[in-house]
Structures are given as C-alpha cells and as structure tokens.
Amino acid sequence: MNRAFSRRDFLKASVAAGVAIKVTFLAPAAEARLIETPPRPGPDWLNNAGKPKYRLDAIAKVTGEKTFSRDYRARDLEGWPKEQSHAFLLHATRTDLAFAGIDLKVLGEDLKPDRMVLHEDLAADGVEIPVPGFYGDVFLVPKGQTARLLGQPVALLIYHDFARYDAAKRLVRFDDSVVRYGEKAASTTPGPYASARYVRIDGGDPAAEDRYSSLKDTVIRAGFKGDEPQWPVPGDGDAMARGMAAAAEIEREIATAGDDVLVLKRHFFSQSTDASAMEADNGNVWYDPTSGILHAMIATQSPYEVAEVAAHMVSKSKYPLKEVDLRVGYTVGYGTKDHAIFPFYCVLAGLYGNGHPVRLANDRYEQFQMGLKRHAFWMDNVLVVDRKTGQFRAMTGVYKNDGGGRENFSASVGAVGATAAQGIYYLPKSDFSAAAVASRAVDAGSTRGYGTLQTMSATEMMVDEVAELIGIDVMDLRLKNVLRSGMKNQQGAVPAGAMRHEEIIRRARAHPLWRDRQKKKEAFDAANPGKKYGVGYGHVHKDYGTGAEAALATIEFDAKGRLKLVHVAHEIGTGATTSQAIMVADILGVVPADTEYGKVRWPQMPLETTDQPYTMSQDEENQRMRNPRWTPSFTSPMSASNSVYYLGHATREAAQALIDLAIWPAAQALWSRGIGGGQIAPEAVRRRDLRLAGGMVNAAGLQPLTFAEVAAEAHRQGLVTGVTVHTFNRWQWAEAEFDLGTLGQHCFAIDALSVRYGDGAPADRKALMTLDGWQFVDRKSVDYPQVQRNNAGVTYYTPMATLAEIVVDTATGDVSLLSHHSIMDCGRQIVPELVSGQIQGGLAMGIGHALKEFLPLYEDGPGDGTWNWNRYELPMAKDVAVWSQTYEILPPLSETDTPKGMAEVVMIAVVPAIANAVAHAIGKRFYSLPITSDNILEALS
C-alpha cells in the first residue's frame, strides 16, 4: 500500500508546456567502455536444465565493468559535452534561527563558485518545488525564514572545474561560519501529515460477515489538534461515525475486562535508521539552452516519476523546455531512491550550469544529512487474551511515526504499519490507528520494511510475553491464534492464496534450536559463568505491492525463433532482470536472446492515465473506463517487493498470450499437415496439453517440434509474433477482452494490448501496425477491481519466521548471535540463488536494527552533517553469524504456484526473534530498539 502521489497536476503542466518525456537506459559507448543495462551474460550462463548459473550482470560485476549511475561523467555519455562541472549544497544545521545568508570569505577569491544559487533565484526564475507537500514547499531556505528541517539546503554552489570545487568543499565542511543566521524566528516545519484508523469487529466467527471493517465500510480519517488526531464522534451516522462507535465498543470491553482475561498494555519504540546503501544519491544534468533539452543521468528507483516531475518543475520557469532525456544506470537504495527529492536538486544544478553538464553527488556525510531515513515509531499496544484458552479477543494499537520536515511517503508508511500490526494472528476485534507527524528531523521515506518492521516486531514481542504471563507454550499460543486460509485480515479482506503459518510454526517447533533450547541453556549457563544463553522466535508476514501496481512488457520472436524481451523493470540489485528472463524461459521453453530493461517510452501503448489510483471515486473510474485507452496508472517504480510478482505478471501474461495467439495455432498447423488432418486428427489434443521446454514444443504424444519451427510457421501465416501488454493490480488483477478480428476474441489478465504480426501477414493486417510497427488493440471490455478494494489495505503476503540463538555477556551487556534459522514461503522460486541472497542481506539489516543501528532524531542527529559510518554502527560479518545461518523454503503447493515478493519480509522476523532470545537468556524484556549493551547492563543492575 505504498501510496503514490497523484501526478495529475504536473502532467497537466507538462503537457501544457509541450514537454516530451524520454527515459532511456544507457546504450553502449565504446570510448568509455559503457555496458548495456543489463550487461550481456556469457554464453555459458545457463546450465543444461535451462537455469542460470549466474546473474545477467555477474560477469560485469567480477570484471569491474558493472557501473552505477555514480560512475558516469559527461564524457562517458553519448552526445554530451566533454567538460564536466560540479556542484555541492550548503545546509542549515539550525531550525530555530532565521537564515541570514552565506559568508564565503573562508574560500578567498580563488575558490569562490562560478555560480551560487539561492531561493530567491529560483523564485525569480519561476522554478517550482515539484508536488508541493510531498516534497515540501521550497528547495532552498528563503532568507529571513527558518529551515523546515535540519540539514535543509540553503544554497547550491557550482564550479566549472573539479580542482576548485574539491578544495572549496573541503574548506567549508564543518565550518559553522559559512551559513549565517539571524534572530530567533517562527518555525516553518509543516504540521502533521495524515492519520488513518482501521477498526474491525467480526460477525461472531471468522467466516461470518463483519459487523464493521475498513473493506466493508471505510478507513477512518481525522484532522489534528497539535500532533493528536481528532477522530470523528461515534454514532450511527456515516461510515466513519459507525466505525468510531465500533472502536468505542472495543474500548469499553477492554475497560471492563474481568479476571478471566489478561489485558496486556505495552509501549514500544523503534528508532530512526539509515538504509546505508553503498551508492549515495547522485545525478549529472545537462540543460542545453540551444535545444531546450534537459539531459539527465540520475540514480533512481522511479525513473518515470523523475522525468515527469522534472518537466513540471521547469515548465513554468524562464528555461525553455522541449524534452527531458533521462538516462538511468544501475543503482541500489532499499526504497530510499524511490520518489526522493535529491534528483530534483540535480535538475537545479543543471539548469544553473550555464550550458555545462553539472554533477551533484552526495558524499557519505551528505548522504546521512539528506538521505531518506527509516521512520521512528512510537507504539502503544493493548492485547486482550482469554487466560484459560489463550484465545485472542481483541487488540488495539496507537501508532505515531515521525516523518521529519518533508512529507514524502510518511502518511502511507504509518498506514501500512497500522494495517500490518495484527501480524500473523486472527483478531475478532481490532482497532489500529496511525498518525504521521512532522518534525525538524531529516525526512523519512519508503525505506525497506515500510512501517511493518516496527509494528509487527512489537506484536511478536507481546505474544511471547503473553505466553509467559498466562503460562502457555508460546508455540501453542501461536497455533491457537494463527491466521488461517480464508480468514480475514484486520481490514476485513481475505488474503490471497493459502496461509501456511501453521506449517511454519510446526517446522520451527521441531527444529533442534527450539526443541532443545532449555536443555542447552542449562548446560551452557552452567559451563559459562557470566554468560547467558537464549533462543527466540519471531514470525511475521509482509505484504508486497502498493494497491496500484502497473507494468508493461513486450515479448516477440523472429522467424528463426530468436526471442526478445523488453520490460519496464530495471536492476537495483535484486536480480529482477535475471528473473524476468527466466520467467520467459519457464513458459516458452526458450531464454530471450535479446533483452532490454528499464524501458519507459512505449509508443505502441498510447495509454491515457490520470494516475489517481488511490483517490479516484468509483463513479469517476466508471466514467474513465468508457475510454478503451484509459488506465489508472501507467507504470510502477522498483519498490514494494514488486518485481517477481507484479512486474513478473506482465512477463507471464505476455508469454501466455504468445502461446494462445501464435505458438498453439502454429503448432496445430504443423501437426495437421498431411492427409486427413495429419497426426493430430486421431488425438483429442487441447491447448492445456501443450508443453514448452528446452526449446521444444510438445503435446499429448505428438511429434516434438523445435521452437524455431513453430516460430517460422507463425511468421509464414502472419500470426501474432509479438505482444506488448499493460497490467494493473488493485489487490486483484484487472482483466480485459480483446477482439483480434479473424484471429478471434481473447481475454487476458491485462488491461491493454498491442500486437505485431508475422512476416507473412496480409497487407490489410500489416496496415494496422501504425504505432512504431505495432497495432494497439482497443479492448472490448475491461474489469477493474473496485476502488473500494484499496480499503483492503493488502491481500498479498509472504511469511517468514526466524529462530535466533544468542549469548548475553552479563559483564559487558554484549549480545552475540551464535546462529539463526529461517523458514519462508515465497511460492515458486524463479531463481533460488536470488532468494538466498535476499535472505542473507535482509537478515543482516534486521540484526543491525535489533542490536546496533540508531540515529538521534534532532540536533545531535544526522541533520548536523557530522555523521558517517565512524559514528553509525552497522553489523559486520562476525555480528550476523555469517557461517552458521541456515534457512528453508516451503516447497510450492503445485507447479502452478506463483512467486511471492519477498525482498522486505526477510529482514523483519529476526528483530523480535532476537528480542525474545534476550528475554529467554536473562529474563528481562525490552520494548525499545535497538537493544544495546547499556540497556542490558541497566536492566541487570
């Protein structure tokens, strides 16, 4: 549910200004040894079973040819000038005093910038902040006003040579005399961002209709008084008032609970952290005033949005703009490069570069000062449990997350955290509210975990404590309350597919780490005076997707059977490009020989979109659907664990469409050759009998055909030999029906289709291919999921459980992780090695969150510009039990299981597992993260 902002306003502005958007990936350029994205694999990258031996980009990685956006300079980019300018930002480290100006006397005359840009320059030139609110209200602090947040830029300094730039930057760093302040002035930090409340009361059992739920009724919203939401008054009026009446009923039940129930109330805190992506934010922008083209090379997870928003911020300025040409290279960001503001500071640098390409790139100090953070969360939970049966009766949670001085995705992160708070448990009654508040802290965004790490960890820690307080085995308690298949989540929606939590719990219970934990603790503690052994368990499931996922993919083949795959997905380190290629091979039996990723310009898809998938009313959407070229959203960024399932759905649907439109009819034709209908006539062969593997096409004992033979026949007949599909998901897939004339009517789980016909197509059919060699097929009908479906919050989940084995040194308070074992259900694995890599990396991040990583929020935090990895402690190999970690993946239920997004869930379960292990070791529970040695020593004193 990572809620994206509406693009309607800046789309209008861009169109009105006549700005074209062009987003491309890097093309080869021999002089700089640039490589394709992704680079070509070696000829041996597949084994005999057609599975990858290594990633598409592996050879480039190990030979040093894999390059990130950060590695490029103007001379490396085709068509750019060879000279490179450089820029850096000056930042405010006070929010209580008015900004008075810049004093550069420390630089002397020789090191003064070639251009200094202040807020007043932007205002005079008509350069606007993009999407006001989401990105704040100003780029640079105006003179006479206070900074909105610590670390907010106050000035941009541009140099046309590197030596002076480098010397100047070194001189001004940590120099408090450069940014001048005046008197105390009023705060300009924005007010609270948003609130959301999810109330549910079931109908007496999990299968009955809910008395009230978000899906059935509505999500409750509120304004603020200070930082406190002002919820509607309970009553029998509208849906929100009825929801508040349901919340009041739950509150009364908790207040009047008898001795037969345990009412456990706990306050939790989860800290602000830095994602610590190795590639800091960067960009290189060249505004060519003669052509009116803004050329950009920017590290981003959301290239489509960056290009659009850049066009908007320039469209009303003095700078004529005809086109935005955005190039994208490899990057990684764990969510922090998704809809971040930094790319637009790069655009500013390019605009004021006097026709020179200008590179703006954070160093590590600047990245800590400006990079999006994981939200700090304050959580007040109440869990009501029947003491005799261990059954959960109700749960409430009041959550507050600090978004810092720019809104970004804070509202959505808070809401997603609230919708995840139930964890893996069924709750007959629940009331979870989220308040996303503003502060002078560095802004936080869509960092990996997206609010769920914070709230689900707290729930898991409470469940362990409940078991201890009522004297029940904690695994039995989980089994009594676990969310089973067909049960509703706390929003009242039934999750997709089978819930396999019981299987995971039983596997964990039987694992030696858990089974023998008490016996091993007694032996270890006796043999190691001053040290305490403990084992803990954490079990969560994480949603994946946003509720408005859209993607495009093309698959086509030539008359020799050579496949080409083109996709919107681009590589941010997850291996998405490798997995998309393997998905094609799994369905068509042939690996694409040619691939192109990160494509955003799709001339064969003339779609219209208002891009308001979260705010549009049902009536408005019904009206829009009368247009066969309308879609709620054009494409998604690389975020929300969306690549293998959502972006992969476009790949899978394109491949299946090719089978229906080309492979099956062409194969039938070949098998029908000969007298009396050929070899197929005596058999009852159906489409469902078709099998494609190893480059061969088979069905029901018929003569196997090579894929190349079938491709040649499809081209000879002029069948569809290429398809481009557009997909949309709102916690359910859109479906549409298409009329292909003599080729028949077809229904696919897509909402738009373009086709390319084979070489032998008749002239009238070829005449239809007017869009860059493609025919866009207007759909006959479409079925979009109801807008109300977004109130479901989420329906797709991936579960993960972790056992953590630790030792606490009671003399130092240090926690040592001896081993950990994880159990996951991620559906059918496309590339198991990529799953393994995600698990290992995610576990390391979770261990850091549980035990080490911490950022102060305010004046002593990263906004002061003095933070680096010398102060911010990340886990090392020795801290994560790198040689003694194990995991197991539940086998798929069938070969038709879909893959599940799993890049975020892998970091979460280990957090409560460690907290519960510490409690097992020393008998003390902690409700604030990270659990530091000082915390432990204080608890033991």
UniProtKB/TrEMBL annotation:
**What InterPro entries does its record include?**
Ald_Oxase/Xan_DH_a/b_sf (IPR036856), Ald_Oxase/xanthine_DH-like (IPR016208), AldOxase/xan_DH_MoCoBD1 (IPR008274), AldOxase/xan_DH_MoCoBD2 (IPR046867), AldOxase/xan_DH_Mopterin-bd_sf (IPR037165), TAT_signal (IPR006311)
The record's annotation in Pfam families points to: MoCoBD_1 (PF02738), MoCoBD_2 (PF20256)
Q: Which residues form the Aldehyde oxidase/xanthine dehydrogenase first molybdopterin binding domain?
A: 257-482
Q: Which domain of life is it from?
A: Bacteria
What PROSITE patterns would the database entry show? TAT (PS51318)
Which sequence ranges are marked TM in the entry? none
Aldehyde oxidase/xanthine dehydrogenase second molybdopterin binding domain ranges (all copies): 508-880
**Record region (Disordered):** 609-633
One annotated GO molecular function is: iron ion binding
- PANTHER family of this UniProt entry? ALDEHYDE OXIDOREDUCTASE MOLYBDENUM-BINDING SUBUNIT PAOC, XANTHINE DEHYDROGENASE
Q: What is this protein called?
A: CO/xanthine dehydrogenase Mo-binding subunit
